[in-house]
């Protein structure tokens, strides 16, 4: 590519870099949402408390016995076990239950609460825990929400289907936009490409500098998209407290790696295809 051609096509290449970086940015946002969806599921499950209602007038030693029994259960989160007296029952079970009771009268007993790790919060494990704890003579009743009741399973299933559909649509759009953008940026060089072929240059020799330039365009677009994506993550991280719990840094790194590989491969393959199209065309077709 001579200097005059390069100078003429510089605006087109700048446009290509900016356009591709925008596509990569939104693709990165999508990948982040998809990869982090599992963390949302985990966060919801690990915030749900299981309530063990105790019998009246228990000794401290009896309370310690049930605490040990809870610790033995599968998947109990360390330091999540707490003892609550009957006065704080409304905070745990909700104020609605108290409407039918006289002011100052609590329908609740002393309680123990604990939480489970996300992978252990299953209906099967909850039933096992219930049967195990109900064998303890100090336990009056147990309250918990089934996995299906908190809607996590259905939510994740629906999100998976939605992300699958969006992935097909979004990747297809990304390929089309990037390919068309590179086609426009190389359109000004079509005569030079054909001229090199006419003077006897091999097709592989002609394609090589353009494919290399396509790789550079892809990598420049990646860095722009990466800066924008990291900036967005930084804003969310410091402005939304729940985002701190959801964000899993290895997934962010994985997203950047995927974007880098995609930006490089897609631009190189698209450039190869576009240059090859010009090489296959007749001289009369280049006027179109």
Structure characterization notes:
There is one protein chain. This protein has 288 residues and is α+β, with helices and mostly antiparallel strands. The chain folds into 2 domains: 3-43 and 151-287, no CATH class; 49-143, Alpha-Beta Plaits (2-Layer Sandwich). Helix content is 67%, strand content 7%. It has 9 helices and 4 strands, in the order H-E-H-E-H-E-H-E-H-H-H-H-H. The protein has helices at residues 3-46, 60-71, 89-93, 123-134, 152-187, 190-198, 203-239, 241-246, 249-280, and strands at 49-54, 82-84, 111-115, 139-143. It has a 4-stranded antiparallel β-sheet, with helices on one face. The radius of gyration is 31 Å and the shape is rod-shaped. Residues 1-8 and 95-105 have low confidence and may be disordered.
**In percent, how helical is the residue content?**
55-70%
Number of helices: 9
| Number of distinct beta strands | 4
Strand content: 5-15%
Summarize the structure.
With 288 residues, the protein is an alpha+beta fold.
Key phrases:
single chain, 288 residues, alpha+beta, Alpha-Beta Plaits, 2 domains, 4 strands, rod-shaped
What topology does this entry show?
Layout: H1 3-46, E1 49-54, H2 60-71, E2 82-84, H3 89-93, E3 111-115, H4 123-134, E4 139-143, H5 152-187, H6 190-198, H7 203-239, H8 241-246, H9 249-280
Antiparallel strand pairs: 1-3, 1-4, 2-3
Helix pairs in contact: 1-5, 1-7, 1-9, 5-9, 7-9
């Amino acid at each position: 590519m001579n200097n005059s051609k390069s100078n003429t096509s510089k605006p087109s290449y700048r446009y290509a870099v900016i356009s591709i970086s925008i596509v990569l940015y939104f693709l990165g946002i999508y990948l982040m949402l998809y990869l982090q969806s599992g963390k949302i599921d985990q966060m919801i499950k690990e915030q749900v408390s299981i309530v063990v209602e105790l019998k009246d007038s228990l000794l401290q030693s009896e309370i310690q016995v049930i605490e040990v029994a809870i610790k033995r259960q599968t998947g109990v989160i360390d330091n999540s076990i707490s003892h609550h007296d009957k006065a704080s029952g409304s905070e745990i079970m909700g104020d609605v239950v108290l409407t039918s009771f006289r002011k100052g009268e609590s329908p609740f007993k002393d309680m123990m609460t604990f939480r489970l790790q996300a992978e252990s919060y299953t209906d099967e494990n909850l039933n096992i825990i219930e049967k195990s704890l109900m064998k303890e003579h100090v336990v009056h009743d147990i309250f918990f929400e089934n996995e299906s009741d908190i809607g996590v399973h259905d939510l994740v299933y629906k999100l998976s289907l939605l992300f699958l559909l969006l992935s097909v649509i979004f990747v297809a759009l990304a390929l089309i936009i990037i390919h068309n953008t590179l086609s426009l940026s190389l359109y000004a060089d079509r005569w030079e490409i054909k001229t090199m072929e006419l003077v006897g240059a091999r097709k592989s020799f002609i394609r090589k500098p353009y494919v290399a330039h396509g790789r550079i365009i892809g990598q420049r677009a990646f860095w722009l998209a990466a800066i924008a994506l990291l900036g967005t993550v930084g804003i969310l991280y410091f402005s939304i407290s729940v985002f701190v719990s959801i964000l899993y840094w290895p997934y962010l790194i994985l997203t950047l790696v995927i974007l880098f590989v995609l930006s490089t491969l897609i631009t190189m393959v698209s450039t190869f295809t576009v240059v090859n199209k010009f090489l296959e065309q007749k001289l009369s077709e280049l006027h179109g």
